[in-house]
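Annex B. Sample input.
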Amino acid sequence: MSDFRRKKLLHVFNVFFDVNHSGTIEKKDFELAVERICKARGWKESDPKHTETKDILFKVWDGLRQKADANQDGQVSHEEWVTMWDDYAKNPDQALGWQNQYMNFMFELEDSSGDGTIDEEEFKSLCVSYGLSPDESTEAFGKFTSNNTVEITREVFADLWKQFFASEDPNAPGNYIFGKVSI
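Annex B, continued. Sample output.
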């Protein structure tokens, strides 16, 4: 695996998964993610979207733990994370159920208007809520939309997702779907 691909995988690990910044991914990170997402969207515990978000993210955690937690310590380390995505890259069309659930969840989270496409403001809003720079988020959106000429539908997002997790090509547009990765 190239240093470039390793860096982008660790970007997702550090920004989107290791919510409490402990250096590992554990169930607590998913609990915090549910709180963060629901608060940002204004969903109270009684809201069906809150329950749906919690259910999906806990299924993602269970799948991630089962696949990546090689030493069964209840945590996913950097190395376990990278190894799991390296396995995915060998055949991205055979993604695990939780990987597809997470991809679809991210699309729906970014498509906050529910119109079936992700626009620049929706993307930037999500990235900023995870602590990424607004300007770099705008720059990243321009990269994966070919300067706003490609509409980001669920199908396009799925292709970009595969590029992000599997491609060694530093110029692949999918490298930017989680914001700008510092290289």
